[in-house]
Amino acid sequence: MNMHTQPQRTPAETALIDAFGERLSLLPGDGAVMLKRDDAIEAVKHGLPTRRIESWHYTDLRRLLSAVPDFDPAAAAQAIAPIVEGSTVLILLNGVSSAKAPVVDGVSVQRLSEKLTDGSIAPGLDPYGSDDAIGALNTAFVADGYFVDIADGIELEKPIELQNLQAGGQTHVRLPVRVGAGAKAVIVERQAGEGAALTSSVSQLVLGEGAEVTWLIVQEQPDTATHLAQFKAHIGKDAKLTLFVMNAGGRLVRQEVMVKTTGEGADFKLRGINLLAGDTHTDVTMVLDHAVPHTTSTEVIRNVVTGKARGVFQGRINVHQYAQKTNAKMACNTLLLSDDGEFSTKPELEIFADDVVCGHGATVTEIDHDHLFYLMARGVDEKSARGLLVKAFVAEVIEELDDEAIVEALEARLDEWFVTHG
Amino acid sequence: MLEIKNLHARIVDDGTEIIRGLNLTVKAGEVAAIMGPNGSGKSTLSYILAGREDYEVTEGDILYNGQSILEMDPAERATSGIFLAFQYPMEIPGVATMEFLKVAMNEQRKARGEEPLKIPEFLKRVKEAAASLSMDMAMLKRPLNVGFSGGEKKRAEILQMKLLEPKLCVLDETDSGLDIDALKIVSDGVNALRSPDRAFLVITHYQRLLEHIVPDSVHVLYRGQVIKSGDKSLALDLEANGYAGVIGQAA
Lengths: 422, 251
Description:
The structure holds two protein chains of two kinds.
Chain A: H1 11-23, H2 32-45, H3 61-64, E1 88-93, E2 96-97, E3 107-111, H4 112-117, H5 133-141, E4 144-150, E5 160-166, E6 170-179, E7 184-193, E8 198-207, E9 212-220, E10 226-235, E11 240-247, E12 252-261, E13 267-276, E14 281-290, E15 296-305, E16 310-319, E17 327-336, E18 342-351, E19 357-365, H6 369-376, H7 382-399, H8 404-421
Chain B: E1 2-11, E2 17-26, E3 31-35, H1 42-50, E4 55-64, E5 67-68, H2 74-79, E6 82-85, E7 92-96, H3 97-111, H4 119-132, E8 143-144, H5 150-164, E9 168-172, H6 180-193, E10 199-203, H7 207-212, E11 217-222, E12 225-230, H8 232-241, H9 244-250
Parallel strand pairs in B: 3-10, 3-11, 6-9, 9-10
Antiparallel strand pairs in B: 1-2, 1-4, 4-5, 7-8, 11-12
């Protein structure tokens, strides 16, 4: 008899556990996949993480996830235009992939439901660790997604846009992408929809030797939605990954980024902008492992906080003992525009090698009054001048991407946010 | 055009009174030079005219075309035609210079009830103005004033002045940081804007600038007051004899 007492389950925990029982017969995959699901729901039964779990200290999921919507088979999400015209679009409508995937030379696309059914995806379903609540939730419920394989040496001219669109209820999707040696691609992960949905979405990227990928996460959920997302990547020898994360919506958002450099010469760039408004909570948590020698990374996060919004950035860089000559730099800058908003930053460096260059910095500022005066002294009214300065603060990070089509597309998303929240 | 009457002003933060009963009148078409030793209140006067919030007017008034501007914010003053060329123009990362010029020109047009400029017309105007100031268009692709040399910043200020076509131009030590060639280019830019319906307030330490921008009147500012006014010969006198004599007479 186990004497350990469990705290009373929250309504959200109960709803998730009940939903698992109800969904079980509908979820694809048996044998190995089902074992993973069983293990995963056990983790949920032990309770959602609270602030006492270090990696969830600023986002007490147990408290913040106050309600969980039922699955809604009638929810009808609508496809949207890709941010870059001419992109190859792979659509998930309310968590369901399309049977008619577009065809691009050198790119193979498979529905994830098929890979769950045949069990070939099972090894990738393990959560990251005991505190990996998002991984566990997703493994328990994942029903579909896309598996994308970009062949060696393929250079895609147009981006691939993965649209994950919901219209209420729950959706749990997974997006594994393999990019072959020497291949080049821009991949856009679009997270949007309407209604009070709960979404979990896990992206898994593997970059072969010398591959170059720019991956853009554009999250524009409605301020009624809970969005729990993970991005995991392995960066091979001499491969380069630029991950750009834009959070511009959602009521409760956690975007985890777990990246490992697995080959010498690997380079990782994380660029993030969090546009936070209303009574919302947004958390970006990164764990970066420099696991081999001679790898580099830079992380720049810019946050704009208005209203009663709360934001979190946790950036943890682990430099393994063997990973000499690592060069890593991390910065998190916040523009706080209201008295009731807040932003918490926690940089962590764990360095076990002795010949490395690592640094981090964090700032919180208000709009510079001298800058405001200068713009107004040229006839720009106060509201527009503030808008220009706020936009400039985040646009700097976008412009660094150095790809005109992408910069334009992201600035358009930025403008869209300012129109509704400026 | 500009009438400053018994103006008293202090720094909001610490209450220090900088302007202490200043009187000055500048007519349309006039170029008035303001000279004075360090700390006499010259730059403060320029900021107060532009509406900077760090200063508080405690007494007196500033009339522009007969209307008090004290209740107007900096943007309203700018759209009504007041322009300050900053001594130290701010560097604003992330704001593209061209984008800023377009916004500023169109905001001013909007305030005057005019249509926004079409892009080709806007570009034409900027190119012409830049060429007249020997400015490279590549510079304008950079963020506003970021990485500009001291001289480039001053040229960029005059460029803005040309494009915005203000009625009252306040130049705060526009000559500082300029070499002789740049001084000539900037002065020519200012002179080209001289017209019967436009006034200039040229703040400077040195007679040097006034050889290029010849003033109609010269006013000596000391301890927050105009202690002496005269024609351009006053500037020459100050250059030859320093401020001591003038200050002595006033004391």
